[in-house]
Specification:
Strand order of the largest sheet: 10-12-13-15-14
CATH architecture of the largest domain: 2-Layer Sandwich
Shape: elongated
Largest sheet: 5 strands, mixed
Distance between the termini: 51 Å
CATH superfamily of the largest domain: Histidine kinase-like ATPase, C-terminal domain
Strand content: 15-25%
CATH topology of the largest domain: Heat Shock Protein 90
Number of helices: 8
Number of strands: 15
Structural class: alpha+beta
Helix content: 40-55%
CATH class of the largest domain: Alpha Beta
Order of helices and strands: HEEEHEEEEEHHHEHEEHEEHEE
Radius of gyration: 52 Å
């Protein structure tokens, strides 16, 4: 029991952990994509603003070759290209022919390096590097400082869009059109994403561990009522069917399970009570004819010379027939209780009824309302149903019994009327109980064992039909059996 519970608990915990891990992985990928997109959009917006300002200055008369192009703290460099595609102005580190960016370790600029790179950068003589921190009067950020004397060895092309963000803006002047370009390396985005990824690698395992522990505790709490149900169900036996499993009262599936099990236990308890009562009543009814037969035989054998053997034989025969009917009814009920038809054949109900009526040897049984009707079923059980209905009606009728058989929709209606005392409305369901006793004439004292009508209803239900009792137009009771047609 504990192993089963633990297994379910482990499975639930693993499922929750895997689901959470998958969700966090997908969320992290989505987050990184969103952050990357937001950073790229922010960079593009910032560069666009700077280019708009440069465009305004150029279109208002400033010489594009003399425009001071700034250094971006994030490594952004700016380039102005004329209509022929030639670079006419640029930030430090961008060559005239192709946009490139300086790469390498950030080291100090030395004045001794300036003569070697001024022509290479396209600077005029008066725009020499001033000091060790400026070029053309602009502060050189740490991110782009390098040994300028080795510029040809420390550059990398940025035409590959995977390596940089490019923003362009056209400027129109009387001298011609110019293209303003901003180039931002994706390194800043990569560094931000790397930092975010590192944080996620730390946070996600911690959250996963917390979720796993929480799932383990919640699963244990959720399965605790199941454990209690299993424990109680294991203690319920044949002699403790009155016990019930605990109901959590939470209204969830476990609570519904407990209520369903309790309803099932109630049905089992009622079935066991009926079974015990049935066995007790059956034993009593079987003992009565057997005792009568033995008593008649003992008396006759005790005084064989005085015994009236013909009377003894008649009594033994009568009790034997009663015993036979009782056993037959018990067998019919046992077969009906199985709930399935083992034999299914076409049965002519009219033929069965007429055969049973012919054996009654009673002239006041009316059969004029019998029509030809066929159904599918067990011939033996349907024969028992008809025989019990007729025997019950003849036993309690004063002088008349009427039988009707017809079609009603998709069902066959078998009705048996008598002119006897009838049945009170409050007792009409009781007469179908096994070994039922009534205060009036319909009782076992009238010659029956109280099983005949119980067999009628059980056989009808087995064939998908119903059995009911109402008032008869003859003044007594009317028993109606509805069975599906073929």
């Amino acid at each position: 029991m504990f192993r089963w519970r633990s297994s379910v608990r482990v499975h639930i915990t693993i499922a929750v952990a895997i689901t959470f891990a998958a969700a966090m992985a997908a969320g992290s990928i989505l987050l990184l994509g969103v952050v990357r997109s937001m950073l790229a959009s922010s960079i593009a917006a910032d560069n666009q603003a700077i280019l708009e300002k440069l465009k305004h200055e150029i279109e208002n008369g400033l010489d594009p070759r003399r425009v001071p192009l700034p250094f971006g703290t994030d490594g952004t460099q700016f380039v102005i290209v004329n209509g022929r595609g030639r670079t006419i102005a640029s930030s430090l580190g961008v060559a005239r022919t192709r946009p490139v960016v300086v790469v390498g370790p950030p080291i100090e600029l030395y004045p001794s390096d300036v003569p070697a790179i001024t022509n290479e950068l396209g600077l005029e003589p008066q725009e020499k590097v001033l000091g060790d921190r400026t070029v053309a009067g602009q502060e050189v950020p740490d991110t782009v400082r390098t040994r300028l004397g080795k510029l040809d060895e420390r550059v990398r092309a940025l035409w590959d869009p995977e390596n940089w963000s490019r923003t362009e803006l056209s400027a129109h002047t009387p001298e011609g059109d110019f293209m303003l370009i901003a180039l931002t390396p994706f390194g800043i985005i990569t560094r931000s994403l790397t930092t975010l990824t590192t944080v996620l690698w730390i946070v996600i395992p911690v959250m996963l561990g917390g979720i796993t522990v929480l799932a383990w505790l919640v699963a244990g709490r959720a399965l605790r009522p199941v454990s209690q149900i299993i424990e109680r169900a294991g203690r319920i036996g044949d002699n403790t069917l009155h016990q019930r499993v605990p109901e959590p009262g939470s209204g969830d599936e476990v609570d519904q399970l407990a209520k369903t099990m309790n309803r099932m236990l109630a049905r089992i308890e009622n079935a066991a009570i009926r079974q015990r009562q049935f066995v007790s009543d059956a034993s009593h009814e079987l003992r009565s004819p057997i005792t009568a037969i033995i008593s008649e035989a003992e008396i006759a054998l005790t005084h064989p010379d005085k015994a009236q053997w013909e009377v003894v034989a008649q009594a033994v025969y009568s009790e034997g027939r009663r015993l036979e009917r009782l056993v037959s009814d018990l067998l019919a009920l046992a077969k009906a209780d199985e709930g399935t038809l083992k034999v299914r054949e076409a049965v002519d109900l009219k033929k069965f009824i007429l055969e049973k009526v012919s054996r009654l040897h009673r002239a006041n049984v009316y059969t004029s309302q019998i029509s030809a009707v066929h159904i599918m079923g067990d011939p033996d059980q349907l024969s028992r149903l008809i025989e019990n209905l007729l025997s019950n009606a003849v036993r309690h009728a004063n002088s008349k019994v009427a039988i009707a058989l017809c079609r009603r929709g998709d069902r066959a209606l078998l009705a048996v009327d008598d002119d006897g005392a009838g049945i009170k409305p409050e007792e009409r369901e009781q007469v179908f109980d096994r070994f039922a006793r009534l205060e009036e004439g319909r009782s076992r004292d009238a010659g029956g064992a109280g099983l005949g009508l119980a067999v009628v209803r059980a056989v009808a239900a087995l064939h998908g039909g119903t059995a009911t009792v109402t008032d008869s137009s003859l003044g007594g009771a009317r028993f109606e059996v509805m069975l599906p047609l073929t």
